[in-house]
Amino acid sequence: MREEVNPPAVSSLMFARRKRLAEDVCAELRMAGLPAHREDDVELHCYGGALVVAHPSAELDVSVEWRQSDQMIRASIGLTEDFDGEELFEAAVRVAQEASSGQAPALLRHTGVVSNQMTDAMIAILNSAGLSARRVTHGLCPYLIGVELL
């Protein structure tokens, strides 16, 4: 069994700089007309829009990920408004099987297109605003943006 290694934490000064960068990212995306929420904004980040996270580890300064509305996500995997954990698990398994066989539902493919296009748009917006943004590969998040301190 492989032991998971956590990246080292950054100093409190560096983390404060990352939080300021996350605020700048939110401000730039909002000025462009996009909803943007910080991860610690618990009441807002479950809605659609850009989810912006300042990272306390040395791995990544700030990340941005586009989130569709809960309604679109539920519809894309065939869930109703009211569902339990077992239904969510069953839907996830079903969707994974369909996707691996090339038969993903059209709405699920649509969510991927939306995520991909919004990721590219946010990178362009942030770079145009003078920030350093790029697509990063991170686990199971194919549409993750990394924003680096300059």
Specify Rg, calculated over alpha carbons: 17 Å
Shape: globular
User: Which consecutive residue ranges, at least 5 long each, have pLDDT under 50?
Assistant: none
Query: How much strand content do the residues show?
Result: 15-25%
Query: What helical percentage do the residues reach?
Result: 40-55%
- The helix-and-strand class reads alpha+beta
SSE order, as H and E?
Answer: HEEEHHHEE
- Arithmetic mean pLDDT: 82
Biggest beta sheet summary: 5 strands, mixed
Strand order of the largest sheet: 1-2-3-5-4
Q: Could you tell me how far the N terminus lies from the C terminus, measured between alpha carbons in angstroms? A: 38 Å
- Give the tally of β-strands: 5
Short description:
The chain is 44% helix and 20% strand. With 150 residues, the protein is α+β, with helices and mostly antiparallel strands. The chain has a 5-stranded mixed β-sheet, with helices on one face.
Question: What features would you describe in this structure?
Answer:
- The protein has 150 residues and is α+β, with helices and mostly antiparallel strands.
- It has one domain (12-148).
- 44% of the residues lie in helices and 20% in strands.
- It has helices spanning 12-31, 70-76, 85-100, 106-128; strands at 36-38, 49-54, 62-67, 132-138, 141-148.
- Strands 1-2-3-5-4 form a five-stranded mixed sheet, covered by helices on one side.
- Helix 2 packs antiparallel against helix 4.
- The longest helix is centred in the C-terminal third of the chain and has 23 residues, at 106-128.
- The chain is globular.
- The N and C termini lie far apart (38 Å).
- The model has no long low-confidence stretch (mean pLDDT 82).
